[in-house]
Amino acid sequence: MSVLTPVAPLATATADPVAALTPPSLDLLLSDIRRRREEFTRLQQIAPDVIGQFRRLGVYRALVPKALGGDEKGPREFCELVETIAQADGSAGWVASFGMGVTYLAALPPETLAAIYADGPDVVFAGGIFPPQRAPKVEGGFEVSGRWAWSSGCTGADVIGVGIAPVEGDKTALPRMAVMPREKVRIERAWNVTGLVGTGSHDVVVDRVVVPEDWTFVRGSRSQRLEPMFRYPTLAFAAQVLSVVSLGIARGAIEELRRLAVDRPSVTGAPRLADRPQVQIELARAEAQLRSARAFFFDAIDEAWDSLLAGDEVSRSRPGCCGCRPPMRRAPAPRWRAPSSCRPA
C-alpha cells in the first residue's frame, strides 16, 4: 500500500534551464506542431518537448492566480489560445486545453492547492474521471485502486486526478476526484483509435494508494478562491475549453481546403477548385457557419465574464443569448504573449 504525505509540495518536471529562459514564439511553435502531426499519431501522445514548449509559452500558468505565481488570464484569452493551437493540430489543442486544470484543483483546500503550486505555476494536470471507483475510508484518507479510461495528456502530467466513490461503512458519498503525483500512477497505453490519437488518452491505473482527504474534492464544487476566474462555473468552462478545440479544427480544415483549392492544379485541365462556383458557395457556407458558431461561443463567455467582473454571479438564464439585449461591444483580446518572467529583457 502506498501512502501520500499530506500537504507536501509536489515536484514538477523541469525543462532544460537554458531553454526555460527562452519562451517559444507562438508562430514557430504552431509551425513545429503542424510539421509533427504524424509523429504525434505514431507516438500516441504529444511529444514531451512540445509539452515543455507549452510550459514556456504559459499554457499551464495562464489561469493560475498571480498569488501562486501565475498569469491570471481570463477565459476568452485562454480559449483563443487553445483554439489557435487546435488549428495546427486537434490533438495538441485538446491537450493544451487541460491548462484549465487549476480551475478544477481550486476546489481543494487552500493549503493543498498551495502545495501543488509550491514549485511554480507551470503544473501539468491530467485526469481520469470515469467510472468512479470505490475508495474505502482508511487511516490517512481514502484507499484508491482501479483503472480509468480517457486520461488525455496523462503521459506529460505532473499531477493526476482520478474519480472515486468514497465509502465509509455502508455509506457511499458523492463522487470525488483524488489527486496524486504522477509517479503514484501507472499508465497503460490503451488509446488505439483512428482520430485524435495524439491526445494520448490512455488508461491510468492506481493500486492501493492512500490519498489524504484534503487531496480530494467534489468535481465542480465551489472554490474558496476569490478571483473572478474561480467564480466562473467550473464544469461549464471544462466543456468550453474542449468545445473550442472543435472551432480550431474547423478553422484549420477550411484553411487547408482553401490552400488546396488555390494551389493544386487539375490534372484534366478543368478549372482549379478555387475557380469553381460550387466550391466557392460551399466554402462560403462553411465559413459563415463557423463564424456564427464562434461568435455565439465567445459571446457566451464574454457575457459570463462581464457579470463576474461586475461582482455578480453568472446568470443561468443568460438573456443575451435569446436577443433580449444586444451583446456588448468589446475590444479585441490581446495577442497571446509568453509569461513576462520568461521573456528576455
Q: What report would you give on this structure?
A:
This protein is α+β, with helices and mostly antiparallel strands and 345 residues long. The protein has one domain (9-123, 219-345): Orthogonal Bundle (Butyryl-Coa Dehydrogenase, subunit A, domain 1). Helix content is 36%, strand content 17%. The chain has helices at 26-35, 37-43, 48-57, 75-88, 90-96, 101-105, 110-116, 234-263, 277-309; strands at 2-3, 125-138, 141-151, 159-168, 171-172, 176-181, 186-188, 202-211, 216-217. Strands 1, 2, 3, 4, 5, 6, 7, 8 and 9 form a nine-stranded mixed β-sheet that branches. The longest helix has 33 residues, at 277-309. The chain is globular, with a radius of gyration of 22 Å. Mean pLDDT is 89; it is low at 12-21, 319-329 and 341-345.
Topology, element by element:
Blueprint (H helix, E strand, L loop, with lengths): L1 E2 L22 H10 L1 H7 L4 H10 L17 H14 L1 H7 L4 H5 L4 H7 L8 E14 L2 E11 L7 E10 L2 E2 L3 E6 L4 E3 L13 E10 L4 E2 L16 H30 L13 H33 L36
Parallel strand pairs: 1-8, 2-4
Antiparallel strand pairs: 2-3, 3-8, 4-5, 4-6, 6-9, 7-8
